[in-house]
Structure formats: structure tokens, C-alpha cells
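Standup, Tuesday
Yesterday: got the pipeline producing C-alpha cells again.
Today: sanity-check two examples.
Blockers: none.

Example 1:
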Amino acid sequence: MAGFQKRTVGIVGGGAWGLALAHLLAENGHTPLVWDRDPGRLSKLRRSHRDEDRLPGVSLNPKIRYVDEMGALKDAHFHVLVVKSAAVSEVLPRLKGEVSPKRLVSAVKGFVGETLRTVSQAVAEVLPDTTYAVLSGPSIALEVVKGVPTSVVVASSDDSFAREVQMTFSGPTFRVYRQDDVLGVELGGALKNIIAIASGISDGLGFGTNSKGALLTRGLYEMVRFGTALGARRDTFFGLAGMGDMITTSFSPNSRNRYVGEQLGRGRRIDEILGGMSMVAEGVRTAFIVRDKARELDVDVPITEAVCSIIEGKASPVEALRLLMTRPLKREFYT
């Protein structure tokens, strides 16, 4: 990236993914400023450059700067929103008041609130003059910090901004592609979490690769069917934000959503599982949002329906599988 000006980038959210992105930026010679609503957590990060709970066994680049006040991010070249989806509605008004970002990248993988409202929709309402992009793809945070080769995609209607984000984050172990299907990339990042839960359930039941191959293939087609009904482009779901992220999240031992599914497959209750986790599994909430919207649109999402029935305790994993396998026979590709 010779000749590319180094950037100061404001990271809103100091969870595992926010820290991984900050680490990447620092490794690339940029200046990442990380804000989190927990000042005690930031203080520990300043001292140790480690987060053993979320990123065990690795040290973060010491050039990351941690700021206690959100307003300290104000003069960054652009900002990255990396909070859990349930917190977006709370954070955006504060971001508007204290920072007023002109350009914002979302690295959130989920929906805002309890309905199918994307981050781009929420940003358009709260920050209508802000140029928006979304960064997504197969990217387990711990692997990124370890320098495991990773590729993701950035989508924006403003190609010059997408190109800037692409060049800022890309480096020897992290490659960013770009495109303009913002909705498709946002949906891919959210929908794959449901399939990852289903994949974990299969693992928890002790099923093999036949089952997982079928599940991921049908899961991808379910994502395509639902996403295109909302106006996203079909090809996006066969890219990094769709199939790529789905595969990684469904296989990784570090995937929170796959873990939730695995525990469900072993017979544990959802409240017990979530109560023992320090990080959020976005797919649990997402599954019900997608199920309700799919029913409204009359879109067939049998895997999502099965995941919801298991989470609700209305069907055991074995019973949900039986219902899936004994559905009326169909053509492989249908709408």
C-alpha cells in the first residue's frame, strides 16, 4: 500500500472483534482509538495489552490507544461500529451527539431491536448525512489477532469510501474485497448465525459429515431464499459475507453460535447455556426475528423454524430433525 496515507480510526466497542480490528490497524501502521463503555476494562487493556477472557493467549499491539470518552474519537478519519446488535439503538444517538461521524463502518452482525431492522437502516435514521459501509465475512477474532490468513468484504454505495476501508484494513494476513450490495452483506452476517446454531446442534447430537454437508447446503439456500425476498443480490450469499462466513462460523471451535447449538444438541436449556457465556451469541435473537419476517413474507425457512422450536423447548433436537427429514419431498431448488 505504498503511498497510502496512514489513518486514525475510531473504534466504537472494545469487544473481541473491536480489539481484533484495532490490532490489525496498528499492525498496518495506522492509529486505532478504542472506546468502550466499560472504563475499567479499558484500564486493564492499557496496562496488559491482553484480554484473556475474549482473546486468550495473545497480546494486542501496544500502539492501540484506549480512550475513556467517546468524544475523543471525534477527529478520526472514519469510525467503526463494533458493538453487539442489541446495543446499536443505544449507541447511535450518543455517537451522533459526541462524535457526529461523517463516515461510519459497521462491523455488527445482527439486527437492531426486535424486528428485522438492519444497521444501515438505523444509521440512516439517526445519522442521515453519514457515509456508510459494512465490513463482514469469515473472521474469527482470535484467528485474526494470531495472524491467520483471512479474507472479508466491505460493501458501500460509495465506492471511494469502500476502497479506502479496503486499503486501510488490508495487510499481509488480512485481505479485503469490496462490493456495493450493502443489504446482502448485512443479511449474510446475520443469517449465517442461525445456520451455525443448527450446525452446532448437529455436532451435539453426534452426527457426521453427511449431515453437516446437507445442513450447510440447505442452510445456504435458505439464506438465499430469504435474502433475495428482501431485495439482496443472490451472488452476495455465495461470497465471503454469506457462504464464507457460514462455513467458518459453523465449524470453528471458537464460534459462539455453534457452541450454543452444540449445547442444545446435548440437551441443555437455552437459559442455562447463555447464562454461562461471557459473550453474546447473536444467532439466538436473530432466529426469531427471521422466523417472524419469513412468515410475514411467506418464505420457507425450515431450518430457522427448527432452531426456534428447539430454543423454545417446543421440540427436542431429535424431534426437530425428524420433522425436517419428513417434510413433503420437493425439487432441490424452489422459491
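Example 2:
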Amino acid sequence: MNIESSTKEDTIKELINLDAIQPFITDKQQLVNDVLDREKEGTTGMGEGIAIPHGKSDGISVPIVVFGKSDTGIEWNSLDGELVNIVFIILVPAKHKGDTHLKILQLLSRQLMKEEFKNKLLEAESREDVYSILETV
């Protein structure tokens, strides 16, 4: 949950390496590559300290959303040039039909526009706290 990395590439790798999602990863390197390839198409640094990298990949078996936060900030080439403190990675199997990742992105983006929601995430101290906050989405 607390991100140690200082670059977007390392942050993506760090969050994909979290123990909680390992049972759902079928090919870690493919998953990392697919998310980084999507990032090359255009920044997922939305501004106001938020990044939502995402991608479809054969490296994951089920749709997953991974959350991390950084106290120091991460250089992300964000739209507003600011460092990122909140990161959500949306991972969806490539074979998954439809626009699941876009629906998740829309829901998260809508909530992240609310200052109170962002502050609660930044103040969360445990995985359970984050789950509780996300249940409101």
C-alpha cells in the first residue's frame, strides 16, 4: 500500500509485485510490459496527485484494481506537472470482452475528484481501511 518507488516504471512493478495479487498473475513480465506499453501511449497521470495506469493483458486472470500511496510523491509526467501521491492500477485480462477497465476508470475518476475521498485514501493506514473507503464507490 505504501509505495517506496520514485518513478512510474518502478511503481508499476512494485504494485504488480504485491503478494495479494500474485495468485491472479499468470505472467508477471507480460503484465508489467502491457501496462508500461499503455503508459507510452499517453500519461495516466491525471493531475492533482493522481495516476491511474491501466491495461489489458494475458498476464492476469481476473480484473483487479491495485492501490498504492506515496508520501514523497512520484514523477509521472502528469497533466499538471505535479508529483503523484495516489496510484490505482487497473488490470484486466486481454480476453475479457467489453470495456470493464473503462467502467472502473470512470468510477474511480469520479470519486477521486472529491477532496474528501482523496484525503481518506491518503490517511488510510491499513488494507482494511482502503477496502472500507473503496466500498463507497
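Quick observation on example 2: The mean pLDDT is 92. The chain has five helices and five strands.
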